[in-house]
Amino acid sequence: MTIEQTKEYIGIWVTKDGNIRHELLPNNRYDEARGNQKSAYQGDYWITVNHIDYKDDTGFTADGEFKNGILYHAGMILYKEQ
């Protein structure tokens, strides 16, 4: 998908308690913060329709789904920061 097609997903997604923060960057890179640890994980992501696949720089993979403006990922629920 192009940047124009995925621009609604670009930005910071955060759990309700603020502990996990995914920043989806326009260059298909992400930066995940956990608690006070900035850049706990970094890697690439790909979006297909409403599905996201992650591959961090160590080779670990994960995925998630965007539904009704919410990101469901690995048992977590993340909301886009405004």
Calculate the terminal CA-CA distance, rounded to whole Å. 23 Å
User: Which stretches are low in confidence, meaning pLDDT under 50 for 5 or more residues running?
Assistant: none
Topology, number of strands: 8
Number of domains: 1
Major sheet strand order: 1-2-3-4-5-6-7-8
Mean pLDDT, nearest integer? 92
Structural class: mainly beta
Largest sheet: 8 strands, antiparallel, barrel
CATH superfamily: Uncharacterised protein family Atu4866
Brief account:
With 82 residues, this protein is mostly beta strands. It has a single domain (3-80), classed as Lipocalin. It has one helix at residues 3-6; strands spanning 11-15, 20-24, 29-34, 37-48, 51-56, 61-67, 70-73, 76-80.
Keywords, separated by commas or semicolons:
82 residues, mainly beta, Lipocalin, 8-stranded antiparallel β-barrel, 1 helix, 61% strand, Uncharacterised_Atu4866, Protein Atu4866, Atu4866-like_sf
